[in-house]
Here is the input.
Amino acid sequence: MEDRISEEDEYEELADDQKVAIGKWFLLNAPPGQVSQVAKDVREVLMDERLYDQAAKEAFPEYNVKNMISLEMPDGSGQVLLTEFGQLDRSRYLDPRTASVAVVDHVKQVCTEVRPADDEDLPSAYVEGFRFSVDAALMKYVDDAFQGGECSVYCTKGKDVEKSGGEFELTVVICNSSYSPKNFRGGCWQSVWRVLINEELRTATLQGTISVNAHYFEEGNVQLESSRKFNDTVTLQDGKDAGTTIVHVIEHLESVYLSSLEEQYSNLSDRTFKELRRKLPVTRTLFQWDKALQLSLTREITREFSNKR
Here is the structure.
């Protein structure tokens, strides 16, 4: 009998690559702004500095880009967003606004070096005029609408176009993260807008994706993830005002999405929570939601009479 119990209690030790994969999974799925706290727990669970270093080396670059974190450049020229659109290689990222390249340490989440960007990394002067126009309007919008938000505009197609009539694509990125451990909450707003500009037709076609992640962890652990795609086309009347026109459309569509989120939250208690309730409780009696207020008043009146007695 004892031999049988000992055999059942035996378990197979995980291989090192399996341990690394598990550690990497936890790091990649850390809520916005909380990867450092998760990393401490992963290090303790793995109990092997070599395995942790390997998991962190693989996970942090992917996590940083996925969450579009921003890092202060050492020369004080501003922030650089770590995005797939500005990624030159695993550790170098283009900042179009300052025409510079930032070298980053992903695990430490710091920018270690900054240098001027090469000509081949930058768009032509003609395309840069449009990019600059959109970026200027975007910064004003983000400053007004997002507290501590960061943004950038990249040329992702047709950066060699040098005269009117060509077609090129700009990608607009907005990211705003918030983490307040004392209030047990954190979250992130991300929006990516691909803007295809056709100078011959004088149009801008927008394809955007907005993603929101909210995390609440007071006496529990709840995460909300929501996203929506948008498409729109706008006519460009004047090249000088192209940036203002494009950003105005982005602002409108993001306001529509925000309004829909607020409407969902306002209906959360009336609809969503009711749908989560068991269709038929253990008592086998359906709860009459339309009489909830009446039942509550009845209980209050009964309690008052009992106290007076």
Remarks:
- The first strand starts at residue 70 and ends at 72.
- The mean pLDDT is 86.
